[in-house]
Design a protein that fits this description.
It is a single chain. By secondary structure, the protein is of the alpha/beta class. The protein has 2 domains: about 160 residues, Medium-chain alcohol dehydrogenases, catalytic domain (Quinone Oxidoreductase, Chain A, domain 1, Alpha-Beta Complex); about 140 residues, Quinone Oxidoreductase, Chain A, domain 1 (Alpha-Beta Complex), CATH 3.90.180. The protein is about 30% helix and about 25% strand. The chain is built from 11 helices and 15 strands. The strands form 3 sheets. Strands 3, 4, 5, 6, 7, 14 and 15 form a 7-stranded mixed sheet that branches. It has a 6-stranded parallel sheet with strand order 10-9-8-11-12-13, sandwiched between helices. Strand 14, helix 11 and strand 15 form a beta-alpha-beta unit. The longest helix has 15 residues. It starts with a strand and ends with a strand.
Length: about 325
């Protein structure tokens, strides 16, 4: 099969190679997927660039997420899956060196979900890390029906999924954005209110929107960078679930601030999230995308031979949605 890989970390154009590799065989509890689209996420780019940690394996095929068609199954897997369209996540993550940037991938059947016919393979490849992270963070403190949720960075890949899933689940959604264009994007996803964090006091605006009460839960793209505002924006017994903290990796929050409001703070890293939370996310996302009322944002598509350009597009940081490599 054709696949991309790297044997050392560094710039995409220097380390990514496309060539021939052995076609995998599904083992016990696994499926073999003919990959049609591979999602490129910031974490994939970070690992290839060497920013996060040394290489965990001598050779890595990048990218966690993807979509395709089940071609074969291993022992203990229902052969009724053969021929089914699917989306998947955690292709190149814990315990796995070879990800979705290849003709084929063998994966634990637990990581695979049905892809409705109305959803393209490219759209399906956007669901893994962004959609699953959004779901786990959104429901970290329980159901959101009838609650008020603040999504920071609500026009981003994770944020826009959090907005849409929150509306689907019956929440009122407030979103922070950095431009009118991003406000329009968040509104299209169902946001009830948008706040330009570059021009407005977020906590003050939240208080005005909620009649002084504050929000029940925050899905946060930058825990440290947003902390001063999000704590003020929360009502008593509220909660924050964050999935990044680039603005301030080592934020300071006094115990008294948490105690006075009885606040809950939880970090979200998808591969290490509880198994039951990930299974709920897969099931809910599959139901949600079947409704037809959704924005599954493909920021751009590249052929496998141009995977370096796809990684560079993510590194530029100006994408709207998920960059996809079409296999």
């Amino acid at each position: 099969m054709r696949a991309a890989w790297y044997d050392r970390t560094g710039p995409a154009c220097e380390v990514l190679v496309v060539g021939e590799r052995p076609k995998p065989t599904p083992g016990r509890g696994e499926v073999l997927i003919r990959v049609r689209a591979s999602g490129v996420n910031p974490s994939d780019v970070g690992m290839r660039g060497g920013a996060n940690a040394p290489m965990a394996y001598p050779r890595i095929t990048p990218n966690s997420d993807g979509a395709g068609v089940v071609e074969a199954v291993g022992p203990w897997v229902d052969d009724g899956l053969i021929g089914k369209r699917v989306w998947f996540y955690n292709g190149q993550r814990n315990g796995r060196a070879f990800g979705s940037a290849a003709d084929y991938i063998e994966l634990d059947a637990d990581l695979v979900s049905p892809l409705p016919d109305a959803v393209s393979f490219a759209e399906g490849a956007t669901l893994g890390i962004p959609g699953m992270t959004a779901h786990v963070a959104l429901f970290a403190a329980g159901p959101v029906q009838g609650r008020v949720v603040l999504v920071t960075g609500g026009a981003g890949a994770v944020g826009l999924y959090a907005v849409q899933l929150a509306k689907w689940a019956g929440a009122t959604v407030i979103v922070t954005v950095s431009s009118p264009e991003k406000a329009a994007r968040a509104k299209a996803g169902g946001a009830d209110f948008t706040i330009d964090y570059r021009r407005e006091d977020v906590a003050k605006a939240v208080r005005e929107i909620t009649g002084g009460e504050g929000v029940d839960h925050v899905v946060d793209v930058d825990f440290g960078g947003n902390l001063a505002q999000t704590v003020r924006a929360l009502k008593a017994c509220g909660s924050i679930a964050y999935y990044a903290s680039k603005g301030e990796p080592a934020p300071v929050l006094t115990a008294g601030e948490l105690m006075r409001k009885n606040l809950t703070v939880r970090g979200v890293l998808l591969p290490n999230s509880p198994h039951d939370a990930r299974r709920r996310a897969q099931a809910d996302i599959t139901r949600w995308i079947s409704t037809g009322d959704r924005i599954l944002a493909v920021a751009g598509t590249y052929p496998l031979d141009e995977i370096a350009a796809a990684h560079e597009a993510v590194e530029r940081g100006d994408k709207a949605g998920t960059v996809v490599v079409e296999i």
